[in-house]
Write a structure and sequence with these properties.
The chain is α/β, with parallel strands linked by helices and 305 residues long. The protein contains ten helices and ten strands. It has helices at residues 5-22, 40-53, 75-86, 146-156, 172-180, 196-202, 212-219, 237-245, 261-273, 286-299; strands spanning 26-30, 58-64, 89-93, 114-116, 135-138, 163-167, 187-191, 205-208, 225-227, 251-253. A six-stranded parallel β-sheet has the order 7-6-5-8-9-10, with helices on both faces. Helix 1 packs parallel to helix 2 (40-53). The longest helix has 18 residues, at 5-22. The radius of gyration is 22 Å and the shape is elongated.
Amino acid sequence: AEADAAYMAGRRAAIADALGRFRPDVLVTETFPLGRRMLADEFEAAIAEVRRRTPSAAVIASVRDIPEPPRKPGRLAEAAARLVRDYDLLMVHGDPALVPLSAIWPLEAFAGRTRHTGYVAAPAPGGHVASAPGILVSVGGGVLGRRLLALAAEAAAGSLRRWHLLAGGSDAAEVAAGLRVGAPGNLVVEPARADYRALLSGAAASVSLAGYNTVLDLAACDTPAVLVPFEEKGEKEQGIRARALAGFPGIRVVPAEGLDAASLRRIAEAAAEGPRRPPLTLCRDGAERSARLITETVHAPVRQT
């Protein structure tokens, strides 16, 4: 059912009640105000409630390495004004050596209170899954990339290499079963696995989207990679991230538009036949650095009132 005004008012009331009971010393908003504008009333009500009950509370914005760029005139100025008015700090969970936030969101008025934390990444895997090295195709844990999986299944039919496809989403089992219908003997299709990073480290080559976690998994290993960024419906985040990585050895970026099974097979097999690549030297201690920044900001807020 469509969320009507009464439903949204109920959400704001529930948020205010939770904040009133918890009385936080710091409120961290995810993506807003650089995104999630449809929920602006909720975020602003939450900030007002926290500051009403605890005037000294810190308010921090938390965004990924590449927030979706502003699409309409005025969005940049609007976000900057909200940051200056309401926020103590903006944390960017990425490495400025790869893509600085200023290249996408030039927030000069808030530059002094913007900090890149590095990527929030799990520790590198301790080994790899023993199997015949093949081409590993993964689209993450969600529903994006279904077309890439279908192309990969078709590409495997004309390949001498083993192709291992991992499907994401709540219906991953059904999607995998559908792709296995009539599949050649060199094709394995199954739902996304918890040991994906170990599989990745043992693969001859990787074919994937260019999501945040996927890139971090690639950064920790030496597997040659083919990135096919998701850029449908005007999405830009993955394309920006992929193009920033295109200059690194052993990483090739291929636009999804116009890609067919024969081209994918040729590109993936060429990657598998090439040398291993050096791991990416990205700053990966973002969790620890974020925690430290939050603590420091709570103890010494820098908001100008």
